[in-house]
Amino acid sequence: MDTKLIIVEGLPGFGKSTTANLLYDILVEKNIDVELILEGNLDHPADYEGVSCFDKSEFDRLLANSGKFREVMNDRVMKIGNDYLLPYRKIINEYSSDFPDHLLNTIYQNDIYELSLEKNMELITEKWKGFVQKASNENKMYIFECCFIQNPVTVGMIKYGVQKERVVSYVDALAGIIEKLNPILFYIEQDDLEYSFRKAVHERAKEWSAGFIEYYTNQGFGKMNGYSDIDGTINVLEARRELESEIFDKLNITKTRINNSQYEAAKYRTMIMEKLHLLKVLE
User: Fold this and answer.
1) Residue-range domains of the chain with CATH
2) pLDDT single digits (tens) 180-195
3) Alpha-carbon distance 219 to 55, whole Å?
């Protein structure tokens, strides 16, 4: 099987980054040309991170209020069809403390993951199509950490609280788009969701956990169900796991589940190696 895309999915704290990095190391050792794309990559080939979208009138207003950053905005914007895409996170990283908060707040309101679900789906779907067209003509493999299941579930269920059928349909449509890359989905599981999430909260920066809990409880599904604090977040994560499991079962692509409950690095690496052999990635 000529696989050009491996996708790693799972809940926060379950070991997606660990798994993606292990997959990358194993494939590199086998002299396979592979590129690893982790969550948060500002140059993600199939997703958007730190990018806002404007129509022409919105972007013209933004320019008019950008002060000394007007030229920077105009130079960095990417026009695709009628959309003006601004990689604002890259600009902020470059200019750091010199970038005014009021301008950032204005731009962030049009972040692609703050837009309506319909517009978000439109932009993300087209990005995936562009990636598949590019990757299908390359002689290498990609590894993506999340974004295939996680992002549609997060924006559809967690943010907007839409019916699960709509989220399932969205991911299924993306699966149809990537089919020609012969993708393989690794879904990471843990026996104890609460333990794994609380472990992640303990190990990661407080800013991460505070932002995560707010996102999961103050909008969409969490708000509709009256959830709050870390316990409410765990309730939302349980519902997310149930939905992602349903999506996994319905997907018509090569897929495998792998359990990372033991947190034993050497044993886990061996498990991944065995999966790759079974899936005929390593032949």
Assistant:
1) 5-47+116-278 (3.40.50.300), 52-108 (no CATH)
2) 999 999 999 999 999 9
3) 26
